[in-house]
From TrEMBL:
Cross-referenced CDD domains: ABC_Carb_Monos_I (cd03216), ABC_Carb_Monos_II (cd03215)
SUPFAM superfamilies attached to this UniProt entry: P-loop containing nucleoside triphosphate hydrolases (SSF52540)
Molecular function as annotated in GO: ATP binding; ATP hydrolysis activity
Keywords: ATP-binding, Nucleotide-binding, Repeat, Transport
InterPro entries on file: AAA+_ATPase (IPR003593), ABC_carbohydrate_import_ATPase (IPR050107), ABC_transporter-like_ATP-bd (IPR003439), ABC_transporter-like_CS (IPR017871), P-loop_NTPase (IPR027417)
PROSITE patterns tied to this protein: ABC_TRANSPORTER_1 (PS00211), ABC_TRANSPORTER_2 (PS50893)
Protein name as annotated: Sugar ABC transporter ATP-binding protein
Organism: Ignisphaera aggregans
Residues annotated as domain ABC transporter: 14-251, 263-505
Length: 508
């Protein structure tokens, strides 16, 4: 086999020319072309369904293009499968980190290195020493290579995958939503690592819904929309703005990104007095009808514990929950919604909110079966009434595809979130607790979810928006409460709040 000469810094590692990909009923990619140089960080952004994942899977050999050329290091190639891609030097880090939990860190780094013939492990001690050497380069010198994968944080698991890529001498790293499950500090460390990898001339493709992060590290940004490449920005000489990228992605006016409107506020609908749990200390606040109350905090602040304590998922040590002037005691989320009209939409929609193996129809109506029952003793459902409710909500919330029988697992993240939020419109409610409602969904879906928040406020719900995204908090809230280390440290009217102020108090 001929040996290729090393690429110069400005030579292209990967070129895609006129890539087309069709699936039954949809054309996912329509003549997409792109190139990436050695040592370059290429940002790839677009809404769900824009074609990003399909493009990545073509590069990594999971799909084959119907038309177009792939040029790798100057030669036209056909990437047959992921093993072929790994042999070529292409490494894919997926959003869902699939690592054998019973393996040690050293074993997880070594697995697959057999594909790289330049490095053959002989002894387990050699495996550990090589793993320790690579981990040290990634700033994980303190991590014991004998540690089991199951005992690692998400950020550490991600670094183990990157360590494996370095062990395999990868030349192109593809990151698919790498920061979606990381804390703010872990995200900063990851982005700094990307810049360090760049110094070693490792080429990177960075896919993320968090456009600010892409802008902070990418040399160029390519925007996909509806299967087309619609824009390309050079981020080296003139810094690209968030507004420019969003406009290209959604083809809408940037003012629509936070579609908040003024709603006349009513009486206090929910009051929390001196709430105390294992992680929360003396929390008090009120929410009015028609109000969107923003609750902001960083990782470990307790913002995710707050709604859980209200709906009975966490034990209250003391404190009162008062609904429309009357103290209530909520045993669980089912009682919260059915007896008191309080809906909790959790931050982890897949594991805490949705029944992924069930169809859209059942996920929409799961909180309203008592209203649809013909016979509550026999649990007989009025199918006509259920079908009508589901059809109306699918249309009203623009759930795509509009198929009640489609399993939720097969929907995009944005449409999964709309299915979860649809429960707020399936029965009379007083309060909706939305925890990170736009995390992990694309820009267009974020806008749609925020419009739904506004609709809730217009209908007189008290809306509590829990978010670690200060832009979202400032863009959507009437009033802002800040938590730090389980305590309420500040409260501002929206017009008083600024990003600096939020971060200042949240960091206390």
């Amino acid at each position: 086999m001929s040996v290729q000469k090393p690429l110069e810094k400005d030579e292209y590692v990967l070129i895609l020319e006129d890539i087309w990909k069709r699936f039954p009923g949809v054309v996912a990619l329509k003549g997409v072309s792109l190139s990436v140089k050695r040592g370059e960080i290429l940002g790839l952004v677009g809404e769900n369904g824009a074609g990003k994942s399909t493009l990545l899977k073509i590069v990594f050999g999971i799909y084959k293009p119907d038309k177009g050329r792939i040029i790798w290091k100057g030669r036209e190639v056909s990437v047959e499968n992921p093993i072929h891609a790994l042999n070529m030097g292409i490494f894919y880090v997926p959003q869902e980190l699939l690592l054998p939990t019973n393996m040690s860190v050293a074993e997880a780094i070594a697995i697959g290195v057999e594909f790289n013939r330049s490095w053959q492990f002989v002894k387990y001690r050699d495996i550990e020493n090589r793993a320790r050497e690579i981990l040290s380069k990634l700033g994980l010198g303190d991590l014991n290579p004998k540690t089991k994968i199951r005992d690692l944080t998400t950020a550490e698991k991600q670094l183990v995958l990157i360590a494996r890529a370095l062990a395999m001498k990868a030349e192109l790293l593809i990151f698919d939503e790498p920061t979606s499950s990381l804390s703010i500090s872990e995200t900063h460390k990851f982005l700094n690592l990307m810049l360090e990898l760049k110094k070693s001339f490792i080429t990177q493709i960075f896919v993320s819904h968090r456009i600010e992060e892409v802008l902070s590290v990418a040399d160029r940004i390519i925007v996909l929309r509806d299967g087309y490449k619609v824009a390309e920005f050079d981020n080296t000489e003139k810094k690209v703005t968030l507004d420019e990228v969003i406009k290209a992605m959604i083809a809408r006016d940037i003012k629509e990104f936070y579609p908040k409107v003024k709603v006349e506020l009513g009486d206090i609908v929910l009051e929390v007095q001196n709430l105390e749990t294992e992680n929360l200390h003396d929390i008090s606040f009120t929410v009015r009808r028609g109000e969107i109350l923003g609750i902001f905090g960083l990782l470990g602040s307790g913002i995710y514990d707050l709604p859980k304590a209200i709906v009975g998922l966490q034990r209250r040590i003391r404190g009162k929950i008062i609904l429309e002037g009357r103290e209530i005691r909520i045993a669980n989320p089912t009682e919260a919604i059915k007896k008191y009209g309080i809906l909790y939409v959790p931050e982890d929609r897949r594991n805490l909110g949705l029944f992924s193996i069930l169809p859209v129809r059942h996920n929409v109506t799961i909180s309203s079966l008592d209203l649809l029952a013909i016979d509550k003793i026999l649990n007989t459902i009025n199918m006509v009434k259920e079908s009508s409710m589901v059809s109306k909500l699918i249309k009203a919330l623009n759930i795509i595809p509009p198929d009640p029988s489609r399993k939720v697992a097969y929907l995009s993240g944005g449409n999964q979130q709309k299915v979860l939020i649809s429960r707020a419109f399936s029965r009379p409610l007083r309060v909706v607790l939305l925890s990170e409602p736009t995390v992990g969904i694309d820009v267009g879906a974020k806008v749609e979810v925020r419009r739904l928040m506004v609709n809730m406020a217009k209908q007189g719900f008290g809306v509590v928006l829990i978010s670690s995204d200060y832009n979202e908090i400032l863009g959507m809230s009437d009033r802002v409460i800040i938590l730090s280390k389980g305590r309420k440290v500040a409260e501002f009217q929206r017009e008083e709040a600024t990003p600096d102020l939020l971060l200042k108090y949240a960091s206390r």
